[in-house]
Amino acid sequence: MSAAVFLAPAGELDALTPGARYTLVGPEARHAATVRRLRAGEEIDLVDGVGVRVRGRVADVRGGSDAAVALEVSAVVREDEPVPAIVLVQALAKGSRDELAIEAGTEVGLDGVIPWQSERSVAQWRGDKAAKGRARWQQIVVAAAKQSRRARVPAVGELVVGAALLRRVEQAVADGGAVLVLHEGATVPVADAAIGAGAPEVLLVVGPEGGLSDAEIAALEEAGAQPVRLGPHVLRTSTAGPIAVAVLAQRLGRWDATAD
Question: What region holds the Ribosomal RNA small subunit methyltransferase E PUA-like domain (predicted)?
């Protein structure tokens, strides 16, 4: 079984080398000590969310409000940022289906998330709900990244509405990236979509439970997006994105390498 993963603040692991000692404190240390009940001698990984993974053996554990976990470092791995980045543009959806999508998408390999208020989104992030919703999504992504033992935690961007998404699509295409829109009426499979050599990112646009309107599809195509399909069946918004991410990850060779 792979070692449990705990998240350290970005930058704190940069200077560590094998043989060093690091002490994890704060909420992650309390979780490790009181929920996971770590004991001295156990092997764990610490990650910083931006590509650094520290492996080591627990030397000491202190519980309580000032919890701390001391780790003796055995190895330090620095994982390159994946190119192209796979960014899921997930429409807000009712019944937590959008949350299920970003959770599973993180587990299978997405690199970023953009919440999108589409025309048919029943769920609405208005006023303070936008900041709270984004924070909630980031918590879900962090938990999913730890569950899947990832060293990189995908960032959740600002909510986009209407023309803001079109501007993001135009910029991605102008920079040499690809934008794929899942649509049941498309004829090109996700696996065959045009992705240029050296593309910095692939945006994957997924609509809500009611699907995308004809106007949205037309506007996205005009901005440079490619309509694509997953297969002969219509999937829920909670599953469409993660499956498309998995297909792209396989196509881009991310699943070919053996994990360290």
Answer: 26-61
Single-letter residue type at 147: Q
**How many other C-beta atoms lie within 10 A of the C-beta of residue 233?**
7
pLDDT at site 259: 46
For 121-158, how does the pLDDT look when each residue is reduced to its tens digit (9 = 90+)? Answer: 988 998 899 999 999 999 999 999 999 999 999 999 99
Please provide the DSSP assignment of 83-118 as one string. SSEEEEEEEP-STTHHHHHHHHHHHHT--EEEEEE-
Domain ranges of the chain: 4-78, 85-251
Question: Distance between CA 65 and CA 231 in Å, rounded?
Answer: 51
Provide the CATH number for the domain formed by 85-251 in this structure: 3.40.1280.10
Same fold, 4-78 and 85-251: no
Name the CATH topology of 4-78: Ribosomal Protein L25; Chain P (2.40.240)
pTM of this prediction?
0.91
